[in-house]
Amino acid sequence: MLTFENVCKSFENGAATASRMVLNNVSFTLKPGLSAAIVGPSGVGKSTLLNLASALLKPDAGKICFEGKDIFSFSEHELNNYRNRSIGIVFQQHLLFPQLTLLDNVLLPVLAQQKITQVHRNRAIELIDLVGLSLVINNYPTTLSGGECQRAALARAVINNPKLILADEPTGALDEMNAGIVSNLLLEVQRTDGAALLVVTHNQQLAAKMSRQLVLSHGCIK
Ligand SMILES: Nc1ncnc2c1ncn2[C@@H]1O[C@H](COP(=O)(O)OP(=O)(O)OP(=O)(O)O)[C@@H](O)[C@H]1O
Ligand SMILES: [Mg+2]
Fold first, then answer.
1. Which domains are seen in the chain, by residue range?
2. Tell me: the pLDDT tens digits for 101-119?
């Protein structure tokens, strides 16, 4: 489903001349329908790895394949399909649009692809119910708590039934109870939809719920 083959990524070091190698020959495979966690401390490169998997960043070397195809060889159309349909992303910051209601935020990835129909609305309403936010469906994000925004972001990530869910520290801003709710929901949605799930986190409790745990350390996966 998703394969990293000897992926390297460096960043320029501000004023310093040498660039910093964040990922150094990272290789792993995530199989369809399975879940995995990549764990590592702050700054180790977890968000970088997910941004590469989402094709938001390009690797310096190596290959990232989705269903056997290099995502950086996709045509513009294929890339749009990949980003909007094949994958669903839960960002480290939930990135809800403050000027849209919760319902419209959840429907946004549909709008990026096509006209919104009643079928889409019903799915959004169903997902919002699943994440326990029916009572605030027409509220704006500024009136929601951090935990509620995270749950809304989860609903938005799966609205298009993605084959692969990428979640960056999805419980980062949450207390233990809300973290438990969000991680269980993530797994429930993953199992219901038969999607693959890749979570990057420093939270060991969240990682332990995934079927595989990989450690990102000094640029490499162990
Ligand atoms: N666009 C960028 N330009 C320069 N350096 C960057 C850029 N993005 C990330 N970095 C650096 O790469 C390293 C890894 O960053 P990344 O955000 O992937 O870490 P992380 O593991 O997600 O950390 P956290 O757990 O705090 O979210 C950090 O040292 C960061 O400063
Ligand atoms: Mg991060």
1. 2-221 (3.40.50.300)
2. 999 999 999 988 889 999 9
